[in-house]
TrEMBL record:
<dbReference type="GO" id="GO:0008670">
    <property type="term" value="F:2,4-dienoyl-CoA reductase (NADPH) activity"/>
</dbReference>
<keyword id="KW-0408">Iron</keyword>
<feature type="domain" description="FAD/NAD(P)-binding">
    <location>
        <begin position="378"/>
        <end position="638"/>
    </location>
</feature>
<dbReference type="InterPro" id="IPR001155">
    <property type="entry name" value="OxRdtase_FMN_N"/>
</dbReference>
<dbReference type="GO" id="GO:0010181">
    <property type="term" value="F:FMN binding"/>
</dbReference>
<dbReference type="InterPro" id="IPR051793">
    <property type="entry name" value="NADH:flavin_oxidoreductase"/>
</dbReference>
<dbReference type="InterPro" id="IPR023753">
    <property type="entry name" value="FAD/NAD-binding_dom"/>
</dbReference>
<comment type="similarity">
    <text>In the N-terminal section; belongs to the NADH:flavin oxidoreductase/NADH oxidase family.</text>
</comment>
<dbReference type="InterPro" id="IPR013785">
    <property type="entry name" value="Aldolase_TIM"/>
</dbReference>
<dbReference type="InterPro" id="IPR036188">
    <property type="entry name" value="FAD/NAD-bd_sf"/>
</dbReference>
<keyword id="KW-0560">Oxidoreductase</keyword>
<dbReference type="GO" id="GO:0051536">
    <property type="term" value="F:iron-sulfur cluster binding"/>
</dbReference>
<dbReference type="Pfam" id="PF00724">
    <property type="entry name" value="Oxidored_FMN"/>
</dbReference>
<feature type="domain" description="NADH:flavin oxidoreductase/NADH oxidase N-terminal">
    <location>
        <begin position="9"/>
        <end position="331"/>
    </location>
</feature>
<keyword id="KW-0288">FMN</keyword>
<keyword id="KW-0285">Flavoprotein</keyword>
<dbReference type="GO" id="GO:0046872">
    <property type="term" value="F:metal ion binding"/>
</dbReference>
Length: 674
């Protein structure tokens, strides 16, 4: 048994096959499924994760028929001619000694097309189309389509299938009264609502035989009104075991639930307790999931018998070699997923290929590569924020001799500030990773050093990752004693009063509002407090696992005005899958949103504004500037003057909203091009 994380790395005997460890790479839709050459790209993507040591991989969702597609051009497995394409994926994974299951996902009313179907004709709040209610004949055909998809998956070389029965997709829609209003044998009591799921499992087992993995992703916590109660969920799990399921995976929350389930502000392993409760009810292996992102969290869950396996999806975008590094005792070398959603889920919901903020090579394994440099060069990188640290690491990986200059005494740049925001504590993990990586690659680091053109003159290549400077808006009185920058606040260089106006309601303004309104320790670090804040009842006193939210969680440390010039909704440009969370938190804390405001002046009375020609004064103690930033290009003129070439990356290249995803990606692209 491996001494590093022995429970996580222990094999799992399924009877007819053995998994080499207890780590399941959870299903993610990456967008590669629908791209030209997508099967080849998926083969490289999954093979890299198999090479990295994961015990069992689950693909993104594949529809069993046309109506079940998530959108018109989504993937479907229904025809024999498709088998050869999937064989590319399974062969690549098996070559790396991995195992892989194909997820079968029928979108039901979540389908983004006009021929969607569901148990009842009830529109989803997150799609524009009202579904058709499935007829009895349609249900029978759907069951056959599931079985056919599983049979074709088996022929394609998959080791099993995962049946998606959670997150509010078709089978989940049949299982819950919220969306199932039928009066036939598929509606009413739980035995009838479960009939389709059980028929699907039985049909698949009959089609694939006994020695084929069937995972069922069961919604153990719906987090919506009209969801199932605990007794119903337990009954479902027992019936699934009897029907021939090999493994039960945990599903948490419907996509339409107004409760965060995987964002960075969700505490680690927030829902493992639900899987632990179920473990007492069934004898087949159970998988814990959601916000498990470090080997120690995985080990703790398994060692305490909360689950038999752990599912991690996005952590394998962040680092394909997570498991191998853990096995080798290289915890600090693991590029930890910070749960930001910016490169993965936000991309998915925009129809873009997924990737990862902290790992721009994810899903680009065959297109963005750090090949060994043909010629040794010396490379200077100026600025040690995310863009600079990434540039230095990537250049050193190519074999260049790298020196990293940083004006501050500490590496990390804006990430040091971001990590102080409640709910963004995970950003510290990226700093740990890059600092360790720089040390391992023997990058020369010069902190507390303002690099000059003279310092850089002898290098073959120069990368400027000098970041940004806060923009100073031209408001009369902006230099007053009651005006501070967001950087000064986060560096704790200034005192902030009890009544505050924030100028600028972009990402920085929202972060500052959360930081300054937090009355206690961040709820992300206190699971019980976080569950109470969002009204999650893991004891299942009510159906769906919801309860009344704790009013004390809405207490604000300050009276805050979040002010913006635009008349659009505050936070409109925040992340697609996380913006609503930030807006909800600030609304709950009573933050005042002031839109369509022009800034007239600042004086000892406060911030003078106009809205539609109506003047008013926000009588506050402190005004915090969050009004954007400008590129820091202080070095550029000197380098140009000496005809020294350079590359701009990150904020130095474009000072839009702070965008670490773009900055780190740009660092990779620049280094690859050297």
């Amino acid at each position: 048994m491996n001494n590093n994380y022995p429970h996580m790395l222990a094999p799992l005997d399924l009877g007819f096959t053995t998994l080499k460890n207890r780590v399941l790479m959870g299903s993610m839709h990456t967008g590669l499924e629908e791209e030209r050459g997508g099967y080849d790209k998926q083969a490289e993507f999954f093979a890299e994760r198999a090479r990295g040591g994961v015990g069992l991989i689950v693909t993104g969702g594949i529809a069993p028929n046309y109506a079940g597609r998530v959108h018109f051009f989504a993937s479907q497995l229904s025809f024999p001619w498709q088998v050869k394409h999937h064989r590319k994926i399974t062969d690549a994974v098996h070559k790396e000694d991995g195992k892989i299951c194909m997820q079968i996902l029928h979108a039901g009313r979540y389908a983004y097309h006009p021929i969607s179907v569901a148990p009842s004709k009830i529109k989803s709040p997150i799609t524009p189309f009202t579904p058709f209610a499935l007829s009895s004949r349609g249900i029978k055909k759907t069951i056959k389509d599931y079985a056919k998809a599983a049979s074709l998956a088996q022929k394609a070389g998959y080791d099993g299938v995962e049946i998606m029965g959670s997150e509010g997709y078709l089978l989940n829609q049949f299982l819950c009264k919220r969306t199932n209003k039928r009066t036939d044998e598929y509606g009413g009591e739980i035995e009838n609502r479960a009939r389709l799921a059980m028929d699907v499992v039985k049909a698949i087992r009959a089609a694939v035989g006994k020695e084929f993995i069937i995972i069922f992703r069961l919604s153990m916590l719906d987090l919506v009104e009209g969801g199932n109660n605990w007794d119903e969920v337990v009954s479902l799990a027992k019936w699934l075991e009897q029907a021939g399921v090999t493994i039960i995976n945990t599903g948490i929350g419907w996509h339409e639930a107004r409760v965060p389930t995987i964002a960075t502000s969700v505490p680690r392993a927030a829902f493992a307790e639900v899987t632990e409760r179920m473990r007492k009810e069934v004898s087949i292996p159970l998988v814990a999931t959601n916000r498990i992102n470090t080997p120690e969290i995985a080990e703790e869950i398994l060692a305490s018998n909360q689950a038999d396996m752990v599912s991690m999806a996005r952590p394998f975008l962040a680092d394909a070699h997570f498991v191998n590094k853990a096995a080798q005792g290289q915890r600090q070398q693991i590029n930890i997923c910070i749960g930001c959603n910016q490169g993965c889920l936000d991309h998915t919901f925009k129809g873009k290929r997924s990737t990862c903020l902290v790992n721009p090579f994810a899903c680009y394994e065959g297109e963005l590569k750090l090949e060994p440099a043909p010629v040794t060069k010396t490379v200077a990188v100026v600025g040690a924020g995310p863009a600079g640290m990434a540039s230095a690491c990537y250049a050193a990986e190519r074999g260049y001799q790298v020196t990293l200059f940083e004006a501050q005494e500490q590496l990390g740049g804006q990430f040091n500030l971001a990590a102080q925001i409640p709910g963004k504590e995970e950003f510290n993990e990226t700093l740990v990773y890059f600092r360790q990586r720089l040390a391992d690659l023997k990058v020369t680091i010069k902190t507390g050093h303002y690099a000059s053109a003279a310092d850089l003159a002898t290098f073959d290549e120069r990368i400027l990752a000098t970041g940004i400077k806060p923009r100073m808006p031209s408001i009369p009185g902006v230099n007053g004693a009651n005006v501070v920058s967001y950087q000064q606040v986060l560096r704790q260089e200034v005192e902030v009063g009890k009544r505050v106006a924030l100028i600028g309601a972009g990402g920085i303004g929202f972060d500052m509002a959360e930081y300054l309104s937090e009355a206690h320790e961040s709820a992300t670090l206190d699971r019980a407090k976080w569950l109470a804040q969002w009204g999650i009842d893991v004891n299942y006193q009510q159906a769906g696992g919801l309860t009344k939210r704790d009013d004390s969680a809405f207490e604000s440390a300050r009276e805050i005005y979040l002010v913006q010039r635009k008349s659009t909704r505050p936070g409109k440009d925040l992340g697609k899958t996380t913006g609503w969370i930030h807006r909800t938190v600030l609304k709950d804390r009573g933050v005042n949103f002031v839109i369509g405001a022009s800034y007239e002046k600042i004086d000892s009375q406060g911030l003078h504004i106009k809205q539609e020609d109506k003047a008013s004064v926000l009588e506050v103690d402190t005004i915090v500037l969050c009004a954007g930033q400008e590129s820091n290009r202080d070095l550029v003129a000197d380098l140009d003057g000496q005809s020294l070439n350079y590359h701009l990356v990150g904020g130095a290249e474009l000072a839009a909203e702070l965008d670490a995803k773009r900055a780190i990606r740009q660092a990779a692209e620049v280094v690859v091009s050297l």
